[in-house]
Amino acid sequence: MFGFGSGYKTLSVDCLGCAVQSVASVHPDHSVTAQEQRDMITAFQRPNGGKIDEIEDGSGCFVASASSEWVLGVLKSSSIRTINDPVHIAVIGGTGLQSLPHFTHVATLKPSTPWGPPSSPISILHHPSPTTGHAIPIAFLSRHGLHHELAPHEVSSRANIAALRRLGVRTIIAFSAVGSLQEAIKPRDFVVPDQIIDRTKGVRPFTYFEGGMVGHVGFADPFDGALAEVVRRCGHSLEGEGVRLHDTGTVICMEGPQFSTRAESNMYRSFGGSVINMSALPEAKLAREAEIGYQMICMSTDYDCWHDSGDVTVEMVMGNMKANAENARRFVGAVLDELSKEEHAELVLAKHLEGQTRFAGGITAKEGRGREAKEKIAWLFPGYFD
């Protein structure tokens, strides 16, 4: 299936050549020359015999999947170029951070996974390295969908994390709006959390290991400590420019989509909770299973209903998000600037997590592993459990 959007129709074709030859008649503003056809076919004839899964236009972009390697290309006016660099860094945007301006958009992906499609198409953005000037690819995914159409319990977290890992991502910076459970954390403050308390209800699928394959990964420190240090340095560098940062904190992750009762809010305060959201889990757990370094940046939008400033409303949350949106984007941009430096290459590749799931997921004897479970895990970790 080759899907063209933004002025393209959808084509169902059996071969790449057919798709290439059809572009001129499908898109009213572009004709494909014979040389371009040859370039496209050459770009996607991989030596390993991989097949094309999908092509998606996004402001003149197309994408294909070839075996375990995703190859990106850009179709602009009358030229073709391919981008073979893996994408190691991703941003998962939540409420109030659904795009990253001032980054160059080069492709839009609509991947499929054994756990279904991700919450939104994945945008590939180019970000220049501050040290070399070379373009660093960044993946961006909207947690709640492009139009915020997914409730917290409807977010396809397994598909989101799986799609990003398959793309090559080993570092995720996640953004989330939160309610404050502490007087010191004021609305519009940022928090770099280091702990989570799980108050979800088991409604959300929260592991890749099920159906005949058992795996137990460590989760004592749910966020990546080394990534957190980078994030904190970047946040403090922006202080005095509208950014106020809290270096640590415990996130209470509740089920939602309703806000807390006053009794619950006070109970969470007695637990030692700093902030409360509906998004940290199972996202952080799945990232750990997928051997991806994960750090959340929280932005306080309100005092939860324990406070005498008034009950939480959507208007209150969105008003503070809008007022602080530029600071949020500058903060995330500063983090991406820093992570794009070559000195952080080992951290970005999450070498400290590499291989942990191979051991944790090997607990089930081969003869006891379910066929579907094996196939899904093999998609996520090719060769791990052969």
TrEMBL record:
Keyword annotations from UniProtKB, A to Z: Cytoplasm, Glycosyltransferase, Nucleus, Purine salvage, Transferase
Predominant place of localization: cytoplasm
Biological pathway: Amino-acid biosynthesis; L-methionine biosynthesis via salvage pathway; S-methyl-5-thio-alpha-D-ribose 1-phosphate from S-methyl-5'-thioadenosine (phosphorylase route): step 1/1
Protein residues bound to phosphate: T95, R143, H144, S176, A177, S279
InterPro entries listed in its UniProt record: MTAP, Nucleoside_phosphorylase_d, Nucleoside_phosphorylase_sf, Purine_phosphorylase-2_CS
One function term, GO molecular function aspect: S-methyl-5-thioadenosine phosphorylase activity
Enzyme class: transferase
Protein's cellular compartments: Cytoplasm; Nucleus
Domain of life, per lineage: Eukaryota
Coiled coil ranges: none
EC number(s) per entry: 2.4.2.28
Family to which this protein belongs: Belongs to the PNP/MTAP phosphorylase family. MTAP subfamily.
Alphabetical list of NCBIfam families matching this protein: MTAP
Protein function: Catalyzes the reversible phosphorylation of S-methyl-5'-thioadenosine (MTA) to adenine and 5-methylthioribose-1-phosphate. Involved in the breakdown of MTA, a major by-product of polyamine biosynthesis. Responsible for the first step in the methionine salvage pathway after MTA has been generated from S-adenosylmethionine. Has broad substrate specificity with 6-aminopurine nucleosides as preferred substrates.
Record's protein name: S-methyl-5'-thioadenosine phosphorylase
Organism of provenance: Cryomyces antarcticus
